[in-house]
Amino acid sequence: MPKGKGPQGKRITLKVAKNAVRVLFNGRRRLELGKMGIATFPKCILELADVEELDLSRNLLRKIPNTIEKFQNLMWLDLHSNQIDELPAAIGTLQNLTFLNLCNNKLTTKGLPQELTLLRNLRTLNLGLNCLETIPTTLGSLRELIELGLFDNSLTIIPKSVKKLPKLERLNVKRNPLPEFAEEEKPIDTVKRIESLYLIEKKDLCGSCLETCQGERDELHKLEDMAPGPSDKPSFPSLSTPNSTARDNQEEWRIK
Question: Any idea what the CATH number is for the domain that residue 121 is in?
C-alpha cells in the first residue's frame, strides 16, 4: 500500500501545513486544510496554533482532540462534512470564536458538550445535517448568536430559550419532524372557510358586520350570474345543418 494512503488517511506534515496558511483581506491568517483526505487531527498543526481561522472541512475526521484548546486565537472554525460524532469539552475554551460550522457530521445530542455554551462570543453556529434529536436548553446562553442552523436533524421541539435569543436573526429548522411545521403543511379548504363565515344569525351581528357579510354575499351572487350556465350554448340561427335541410325538403325530393 503506498505511503500515506492507509486507513489513517492522508498524512499532513508541518511543511504542507505552513504552505496552507493564507492571509485574508482582513489581515487574519487562515489555515486551509479542507478536502485533503485527513482522517486524524494532525498534531503538527499545533505549531501553527496562533492562526485566527482553521478550515478542516470535507475530510474524514471522527474526533477533535482536546488539544484544540491550543488555538486560543481562533475566531473562525469550519469542520463541516466530516464524520465527527462528538465534540471535546475543550471546545469551550475558544473564547474568541465567533463562527463554528459543524454541518454534515454525525453529531448526536450526547455529542454536544455542556462546555459549548461557554462560547459567549459565538455569532454563527451551524448544526444542520447531523443526528440531533434534542437541543440543549443551555444553548440559550449564547446571547450573541445571530444565526443558528438546525436543519435536517430529528428535532421535535426547539427550546424556548433558543427561540428567544435576543440577537437571533436567522433560525433554520427546515426538514425536522416539528409539530408546528406539520400543521402548517395541512391544505386549507377554502370552500369550508367561506361557508363558515355565515353560520350565524343576522340578529347576532352588529350593524357593520352585517353590512360586510351582505356585501360579500352580493359579490358572490354577481359572480354566479356572470358564470355561463349549462344551457348557455352558442346559437347560430342563420345557419342550417345538413339534417335540417333534408328534413325541410324531403317531400319535394320524394315527388321528384
Answer: 3.80.10.10
pTM of the model: 0.69
Can you give the residue range of the structural domain that contains 89? 18-181
Write down the residue that cell numbers 445535517 correspond to.
129
∠ CA 129-132-133, nearest 5°, is 135
Does residue 101 sit within a domain? yes
In angstroms, rounded to a whole number, what is the distance separating the alpha carbons of residues 108 and 116? 14
Q: Which of 11, 6, 103 is nearest to 58 (CA)?
A: 103
User: How many domains are there within the chain?
Assistant: 1
In a domain, 6, yes or no: no
pLDDT truncated to tens, each residue of the chain (256 aa)? 444 444 468 899 999 999 999 999 999 999 999 999 999 999 999 999 999 999 999 999 999 999 999 999 999 999 999 999 999 999 999 999 999 999 999 999 999 999 999 999 999 999 999 999 999 999 999 999 999 999 999 999 999 999 999 999 999 999 999 987 655 445 544 444 444 444 555 655 566 666 766 777 777 666 666 655 555 555 444 444 445 444 454 454 444 3
Which cell numbers hold the place of 15? 511543511
Residue type, 44: C
Q: Tell me the β-bridge partners of 29.
A: 23
Alpha helices in the chain, H assignment, sequence order: 14-19, 160-163, 179-184, 190-196, 207-226, 242-255
Residue 25 lies in a domain: yes
Whole-number CA gyration radius for the chain: 35
Give a yes or no: residue 75 inside a domain. Answer: yes
Q: For residue 84, how many other CB atoms are within 10 A of its CB? A: 21
User: C-alpha angle with apex 177: 175 to 179, nearest 5 degrees?
Assistant: 120
